[in-house]
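Run Bacterial transcriptional activator domain-containing protein through structure prediction, thanks.
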Amino acid sequence: MTTWPVALTTGQATHDTVPVPTLTVQTLGVPRIWVASELCTLSGKSLALLVYLALEGPVHRDLLTELLWTEKAGQGARGNLRQELYRLRSKLPGSWLRVEGDWVEVRGAEVDALQLRAHLAAGRWEAAAGRVGGEFLVGLTPPAADGFSEWREQQAAQWREESLRALGGWAAELEGQGEYRAALAVHERGCALDDFSEAHQQGVIRLQLVLGEREAALQRANAFSALLRRELGTAPSQAIQRLTELAQISPNAAPLPLTGREDALYVLSHARLSLILGEAGIGKTRLCAAAAPRPGLTLRGLADLSGIPYAPLAEALSAHSAKWPPSGSLARSAMLRLLAAEDAGSTPPLPEDRALFVRLLGEVLGTVLGSGALVVEDLHWLDPGTLAVVAHHIRHGPGGPAAGRVIMTARPGELQTRADLNVILDALGRDQPLTRVQIAELSEPQLRQLTQQMVGHDAPLFSQRLHRATAGNPLFILETLRDLRERGELRQIAGLWQTPYDDSTVDYAEILTPPSVHAAIHERLSRLGEGSRRALQAAALSSEALSPAQIAEVSGLSEWDTVEALEQAQAARLITAVDGRYSFGHELYRRATAEGVVGARRQTLHRSLARMLERTGAQPARIAEHLEAALERREAWPRWREAGQRAARLFAYAKASDYFRRALACDPADADAFELLTEQAELLRHVDDQAARLKALERLRALADTLGDPERQAEAAIRLASYSTEQDDYAGAVQVALMTLEAVQAVLSPDRQAALLLEAGAALACQDNHAEALTRLGQALALTAPGTPLSTSPRHANILYWMGHCAGQQGDLQTAAQHYRAALLSLSPSHLTRGRVLTLWKLGQFETRLGQWTVALEHLSLAEHESRTLDSPPLRLLCLTALGEWELLQGHIEKALRLAADAQQLSAHSHDSEGREALAHLLMQLHERGLTPT
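Sure, done. The structure for Bacterial transcriptional activator domain-containing protein is below.
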């Protein structure tokens, strides 16, 4: 695009204000021009001139004459151009057209093609697809304008590709939302724009198969293959050939067909990675079981376990210990660490690296699975840790047609609330095909077929009325039929199925339908004896399957009575048994049963479940849930704290913070609450939730004053001063630290004195008051000097860190680097901390400035690696920016741009001002070289 050589002025009128953008230019399809929503009648070279100027910006007269009067040169062509410009001025009221000397420009125009490109760049797929029209400038061929025709052909190919990309992105987004029919329509638009588009043709065929339209899919595949052979003389791709084979096979050939699910089952049975989407009770589990009749392993997400890191994975893998990797391997160490086994100490130590931890658990999962399929039920309830392991298995597990299959199920509504899960699914979908199958209620013909299978005879009138009563929901259909037969109200007379409601109803409204299906379950429960109800109530409040002995312990029944009660409930099809453990046949049964347990009985059962789980060594969070429900809050909070500490060791800082929040909600004693808040504040620092961290620190300080303990008052002041420094409130940090030191110094331990002096010195250093800062830091260093108990503490290293900062700010780079190296020597490499990462980062920066390139890169890379292990976005932002500057100074432009782009993504979710400032400095350096990260 040509740019203006100088600032333009007319000498007659001021044109600094851009005209109101109501000039609309349509270029995709038949070109049209509107001014203030009124269609303008432009054609020929006038229209070509306006379109070119609107797209290309300021253009020199000579270029315009070459484009539109290709065979005519000199003053004759320039005269024609003047005439066309005059026509444009008369046709377009307003100051859209701007002519300055030899330069011509159209300003303030809204051009559909440019809007399409802007939406694409921002990832707004729906908006981009909305701008897609037809081919570029259809029918616009001004005479004797060979230059314009050549330009139009080049532009047409470019805009066709961008239009197809927009439609492809919008179709993928719709498909990810389960909107298969809408996605199909978008792919068909792509085919209409370019019938040779392989991606859109594949999309149409694949979605027609998913929607059960096999004949249409086969017709489309054959037609596209014939087009390729006829027009291009080429055979269809392997992907098209495979889709053609799928369309040719009858659904009756699919194994274990389900009524109304034959096509979905066939698609699933031929996909390596698939996701079944549907609401509760719609039949996802049955379809999943048919698609993978003998899974290698099944992971089940449970709402009650969704907050416990790796809980579904631990429970599934613990049942297959015979298949674990051999003793002494890191993978087995990871498994034992996950289960918190007593003999974990006899295995090799596991590095403090979350990515490695996930990979090792993925190895255990792959070993247990072997060549079997992995089934993940209720994916939306998996915790982030288990999700990471499943994602690792999908990316790195075994391949081939028989191995490595993964089938998942999820509820669409629940899935929409899991942004983290959708990010993982999108990433997996980019790596390999992810087949999404949406299943819905059965149609009336499908229900008629199902009824015939259930009752043994065709019942057209009964099926029609049953469909009206249940809306085709499989769970409600099956439950209603079962209940009618148990009551003896469904009977056959003269070959017709009848009920007592036939003479008084048109739509079978009397048959139990939602929300009345709960009432049906409660009624079935009431038919059972007291023993069965007690056993079921005990099981209903548990989030996992229980053995008869466990149910007996919780319910207070004898073991014999418990077995008898469970047999009765199993005969009523309310519960099922797997490997000697009992659970409800459907979540609906469990919820309905649990709702009937209230008051003291509910508290007693929760208390018994907590005791039983504690005796069996269950996860602390599960024990705490039951204790809290039993109103045993004093006993619940220590379990929440233990759960939080375990989650923190697994790098699940957000979940750990939530556990501490729940512990604090149990109203522990003030001294205990102080310790909990201290740990929670550090976790909130990790997750960069500064607002919540400030509230925790303010409460911490209030508790310290209430307790009247100088050591606790100092601890609260230390943490509040550190927060103030990080938020650039340096004066506030100095005030908090020094006022506290003055008030209670005489009774403080050396460690607390050193910490307060350190915080004051750090804040003074940030104010560039280096002399006073070094005085305070020197006093702190004396308290932690060699020979003192604190000489090897992190506090000693932190003091050296800030002394290095002061030296660096004063321009003494060598002394600064020496201080940072000394600080690093005081920090153990085996114990990753925020302070160690910051020290590595600073040292690498100063070594870069000193030209010590090799060691600088080594320290910066190690800092970035450890920041990822700590899962700290603010620290990663600092490290990525420093690495970007190192690469830029070395002339590695592509690496610098890539690191800057990664840092920008982190910056969008970070509140750390230091990181943002460092990134801004890097971006400015790139901008000075004419570079912009993408």
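Residues 1-19, 250-257, 341-351, 504-516 have pLDDT under 50 and may be disordered.
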